[in-house]
Automatic annotation (TrEMBL):
L-threonine binds at T37, H69, R123, A143, S183. This is Threonylcarbamoyl-AMP synthase. It is found in: Cytoplasm. The lineage of its organism: Bacteria, Bacillati, Bacillota, Clostridia, Eubacteriales. It catalyses: L-threonine + hydrogencarbonate + ATP = L-threonylcarbamoyladenylate + diphosphate + H2O. It comes from Pseudobacteroides cellulosolvens ATCC 35603 = DSM 2933.
Length: 352
């Protein structure tokens, strides 16, 4: 398959190229496009054959449900049996944006989208290119991350090109994703609502808007093979680079000491090692390829760079990545959720 690559400036959108993307979607093709979270691989959500091609292109397990992207609430009404009042409140507060809502699906939604579940995951992206594509195509768009299944999610077009060139009709380069982690997935069919995947909208933000929110215990489970996915990203090792990832968890000083010790050991054995540090600690390492994820005091900066730096260390040819854990509160919960899955839950705890 020949893949077309088009560049669109989100601040000055080229309607002609948006039209090309919309036409491909309407004709049953695949389009990779930027969103504010990560790049998505889109197909017409109402076209079962087109959606099946997403699974083929990504090598994605068929029991892993997809998120449907919309551009207005009228689209949502056609995809669900009813919109709970709570969902309307959340849409008003957080849409467009990185929040996915789980609701009871209508008969129009193909089972391939929901992996046979009675619910469907829906969100409205805030990225202007994503919104324009959906508006122009006038179809809801099923779109998981635009990468080979299991690899770190793509936050830049070059990541998509590395993974999907020759497997999709069109890749749109719209610059770097802002959030850097996939959306928060919230099930509003239960009371209280439950977070099935942490993301850019935090538990604290949700509770401030609508009251008590629960978190699914499976989010931090290390027995993923026993989980029946109720939302994307709940099952399987995800976000993994080629290198083995080891998380060091504990007080910062103890983490640094342990990582320095391990890095020296790998060096003696001739094993190239990478270190995922923070702005506060990056200068404390003298062995290995050191990358700063961002500022510990601003976890948003770490969220936006995690996937990019995992891919960057792969490009550097390291075989082991030693990663400092961060506090798992706020956006840090989403960061640690992704980091632990990237590591296959290979965690060394240090200190008290």
């Amino acid at each position: 398959m020949k893949t077309i690559i088009k560049t669109i400036d989100k601040n000055s959108i080229d309607i002609k190229n948006i039209g090309i993307a919309a036409d491909i979607l309407k004709s049953g093709g695949l389009v990779a496009f930027p969103t504010e979270t990560v790049y998505g691989l889109g197909a017409n959500a109402l076209d079962e054959k087109a959606v099946s091609e997403i699974f083929v292109a990504k090598g994605r397990p068929s029991d892993n449900p997809l998120i449907v992207h919309v551009c207005n609430v009228e689209m949502v009404k056609r995809l669900v049996k009813n919109i709970p009042e709570l969902a309307f409140k959340l849409m008003e507060k957080f849409w467009p944006g990185p929040l996915t809502l789980i609701m009871e699906k209508s008969s129009r939604v193909p089972e391939i989208i929901t992996a046979g579940l009675s619910t469907v995951a829906i969100r409205m992206p805030s990225h202007p290119i994503a919104l324009k594509i959906i508006e122009e195509s006038q179809v809801p768009v099923a779109a998981p991350s635009a990468n080979i299944s299991g690899k770190p999610s793509p936050t830049e077009a070059k990541h998509v090109i590395e993974d999907l060139m020759g497997k999709v009709e069109l890749i749109i380069d719209g610059g770097s994703s802002q959030v850097g982690l996939e959306s928060t997935v919230l099930d509003v069919t239960v009371n209280p609502p439950m977070i099935l995947r942490p993301g850019g909208i935090t538990k604290e933000q949700l509770e401030e808007a609508v009251g008590k929110i629960d978190i699914d215990k499976a989010i931090l489970s290390d027995h993923l093979e026993d989980i029946k996915p109720r939302a994307p990203g709940m099952k399987y090792t995800h976000y993994s680079p080629k290198a083995d990832v080891i998380i060091i968890e504990g007080k910062v000083e103890a983490c640094v000491e342990k990582i320095r010790e391990l890095a020296e050991s790998y060096k003696r054995d001739g094993i190239p090692v990478g270190i995922l540090a923070t702005e506060q600690t990056k200068g404390l390492y003298t062995v290995g390829t050191v990358m700063s994820l961002g500022d510990r005091k601003m976890p948003d900066t770490i969220a936006s760079s995690l996937f990019r730096e995992l891919r960057h260390l792969d490009d550097k040819g390291v075989r082991v990545i030693l990663a400092e854990a961060i506090e798992d509160t706020g956006v840090g919960l989403a960061v640690m959720n992704r980091m632990k899955k990237a590591a296959g839950y290979n965690i060394i705890k240090v200190g008290d």
